[in-house]
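Issue 218. Parser rejects a valid record. Input:
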Amino acid sequence: MHIGILEPGVTPDDLLDAHGTMPEMAERLFGPLDPSLRFSTWRVVDGIFPDSVTATDGWLVMGSKHGVYEDLPWMRTLKDFLRGAITARVPVVGICFGHQILAEAMGGKVVKSERGWGCGVHRYTLSDGGEIAIAAMHQDQVIEVPPDAQVIASSEFCPVAGLEYGGRALSFQPHPEFADAFVRDLVSSRRGGSIPAPVADVALASIGGPTDRDRLGRRIIDFFRSRRVAARAA
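Output the parser choked on:
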């Protein structure tokens, strides 16, 4: 199965050598869970897009320092691309910024939340009654759920932390691709700057315990595979 990674943001320069690009982080998560997967990346933040929404078997939209409300030209193109992919029945998965821009593309609303930074390992309640612990790194939040979307993950801090679009798309606010070491270095490097020290200290204390990165990674892979089977049967 061929997964196209749409890259709307880049790893900070001070962390790039140690941790690699965000698409590389995604491949380090998903590759061991399913070695048959192959990946291609398009840096949409630089205006580089695939020629067609059907160029791969599914699309993974990743995180970014940008807010969707900035409404930059590449963001408008990305929204059109995502709507086109969904219309063409090519599955889409969004993570963090990907979760937010997919929501906006499908009729929802995203703002910079008054709740401030959500970072470190957060716990989310799933619509099936389970829970997951996954790293978060965001200020922006989806505050209006798109029509035909259902909330599938939530927390007190982030009520709309996961959305499912009638089997056509799936998205999550937290980052399953972020390993503990990257989260620790990212928060530490921003502590007392863009992230207030007390918030950073709580986040740093949350890192190191068990998380559900692999579990969420498998759910995403299962979604891509189930939609591929459905498309072949249609």
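Fixed in the parser; the record now loads. The chain has one domain: 2-112+141-178+211-233.
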